[in-house]
Write a structure and sequence with these properties.
Elements (H helix, E strand, L loop, with lengths): L6 H4 E4 L4 E10 L2 E10 L5 E10 L6 E6 L4 E6 L2 E2 L4 E10 L4 E10 L8 E11 L2 E12 L2 E3 L10 E3 L2 E16 L4 H5 L1
Amino acid sequence: MEEPKSWDELYSIDLMPSELFLKFREQLQGFRVALNLEFYNSPMNECQGKLVLKPLSDDRRWKFIYEPLRQDVRLVSKKIPITNFLSLQVGIGHNFESHATGWKWKLTSCLGGDGVSRIRNKTSLALCPGVDLRFGWRADYVLPEFTGAVGTGEALFNMNSGRLEASLDRIETILTHHHHHSKDQEDT
C-alpha cells in the first residue's frame, strides 16, 4: 500500500493574485462607459489601460474596447453559450500602429484545463452601492484513485489520495457611478 502523504503534499493554495484590475464605470443613457486599469505581475510587470463601451440592456450582444497604449480597437460579441460549460466569443479588431485588421474567436469553458481537472470561476462581492469586488479563482485537482489486484503480486488495495492546487488569480475593484437625471431635465 502507498505511504500516506502529508497534508502539505495534498494541497497548495496561492492567495497572491497575478492580476489586479481597477474599473471605473459610468452608466448613462443605456450604455456603460468604463476605464479599466489592469496591472499584471506575471510573467512581467505590466500595466494596461482600456476604454470599454457596451449597452446595458439584458440582450446586449457586443462591447467596444479601445486600448490606447497598444493602439488597438475591437468590437467583441458577448459570450455565446454553446453548451452549459462551453462558450464562443468572436470579434473584429484593428491595430493603428501596424495598420492590421483581423477577426478573432475564443472558445472558453469554466472547466478549463483538460476539461475535467480544472474549475475556473469569478465570484462577486458587493461592498456597498457602486463598489464591487470580483475575484477570479481556479482549482486544479486530481481525484483520489483506488486500485487493487488479486494473484498478480500487486497490492490487494491501493489508494492514491489525489491533490488540490487552488489559486486566487485576479482581484477586480469595480467603482460604478449611476447617472441619474430628474424628470425636469428630461423635459428641457
